[in-house]
Amino acid sequence: MKSWNEERLAGLDTEALVHRCQRGDRLAIEVLIRRYQNYVFRLCVLVMRSEQDAEDMTQETFIRAFRALPRFEFREGTGFEGWLYRIAVNACRSRMRRKWYQVLPWPDPAPQLTSEPAEQPDQVLMQGEHRDRVLAAVDTLGDKHRLVVILRYYGGMSNEEIARALNIPSGTVRSRLHVARQRLRVALEQEEEKAGNTMSKGVAA
Known about the structure:
single chain; mainly alpha; Arc Repressor Mutant, subunit A; 9 helices; Rna Polymerase Sigma Factor, Chain: A
């Protein structure tokens, strides 16, 4: 059962809670971790594709965050969430650089990769066998393009949230998503053409 102090702290907005953490309030730190640990873990799972690694990276994220928290300042366009998610993404990328990165199966439920109508009318839906082909194509993208695709279409983050998490302009996020979708379309067309040629040869034989 939560104590009265815990319930009172849980009712504070993030900015007030962060300020209490910066003053060394240990209970506020616990409340802040509980508020964000599930989202940080889910984000780490998306990037690492391994729950075991994600657990390690979630812990690493909060260790890094609370070491840096005394220097954190709320400014216009600088929210705590984006700052924390950027630390999580950087922690995951550091781990991936230190170890041999093995591409693991995508966790369930599988993502829906849907193009943005304003930018690309023909939608790419990740369903059934087609979904698996799209996911395989996503894994062929370079790190910077694969990451924005994962965060946008699987993590459900907006372009602005991704921009804050990766510390890049939102225009760069849009540009990388556009390039990623083009590369995915080409990869899928090539894969379908290859599969069609294979079937033709089988019939001819």
